[in-house]
Amino acid sequence: MPTELPDSRVSPRFAGLVTFGRYPRLEDTNGPVDWAVLGVPYDTGVSYRPGTRFGPRAIRDASQYLKRYHLEHRIDVLERLSLADAGDAPVKPYHPKVCLDLVCDWISRLPEGAKPMTLGGDHSVSYAAVKAAWIRAASPEGGIATLHFDSHLDTVDSVWDEKYGHASPFIRLIEEGVIDPSRMLTVGIKGPMTNGADLDYAEQHGVTILTHDEWTRVGNTPVRDFVKRLDGAPCYITFDIDCIDPVYAPGTGTPAVGGFTSYEALSLLRAAQGLNLVGADVVEVLPDRDLNQNTALLAAHVAFEIFALDALRTD
């Protein structure tokens, strides 16, 4: 059923309760919900600058000016999808694995049929979010497909003896059979790297890597080809905001120069039309390093682009 929004001519966008996109709170909805937006205010997994625990709040604030009609796709997203804000998952920031298991369990218990859109938080929260989406998709054997936007592979075994930090979510998820590495496309990787061995796990396990330099030569075609190859198989999108050049998205804790522009990132997401989505996340927004809310605003629009991809499948 369509999503009802407050009339902005009666209740201005700068007034009222702050939910993502001014969507209704989950507890205020009647009937099924297509997507539940949730925050995970957690950043104990970071290896450089902390502060992404404040990311969900910043993204929600920036999302107040989101509108409903997607110009390029020519669809009213809120007419096609029921969207709601489920609030924030509970966290235990002193205990990484305990916290991530708690978050996974909480997301797993969202109302049946509601796909989770997780706002981070650092990228370690994807361990919980992807696993919960896999569980909610009936835990398909062999794991789900994944479209991963990032400057970093996040398949490092451990950092400072911690195996559940933001450098390691995808090695853990592959090990546990949650992600099928042969159906994982990682887009935007760029250097410099700690060492060449950082590539080994992903390459040896069949992850397809589209570096930023390669993308400048071939464009969005590998993303379109990835969608065709999946042929409707369940897929998760995980979007680390640091794949964007810090000129456009300065508010992140591990910035990597030479990345996508805001437009290029949105164009890449639009190239993923046809994906059968089971969930998504947008992570690594660090408000203290943001400039004029640019990063948080972009993160909100990334989430909206993902909703639009799902809305297109309702035809």
What percent strand? 15-25%
| Series of secondary-structure elements, N-terminal to C-terminal | EHEEHEHEHEHEHEHHEHEH
Number of helical elements: 10
Distance between the termini: 14 Å
**How many whole angstroms does the radius of gyration measure?**
18 Å
Morphology: globular
Q: Stretches where pLDDT falls below 50 for ≥5 residues?
A: none
In which order are the strands of the major sheet placed? 4-1-5-10-9-6-7-8
Question: Quick summary of this structure?
Answer:
The protein is α/β, with parallel strands linked by helices and 315 residues long.
What do you see in this structure?
Helix content is 30%, strand content 18%. By secondary structure, the protein is α/β, with parallel strands linked by helices. An eight-stranded parallel β-sheet has the order 4-1-5-10-9-6-7-8, with helices on both faces. A two-stranded antiparallel ribbon has the order 2-3. A hairpin with a 4-residue loop joins β2 and β3 (75-76). It starts with 34 loop residues before the first strand and ends with a helix.
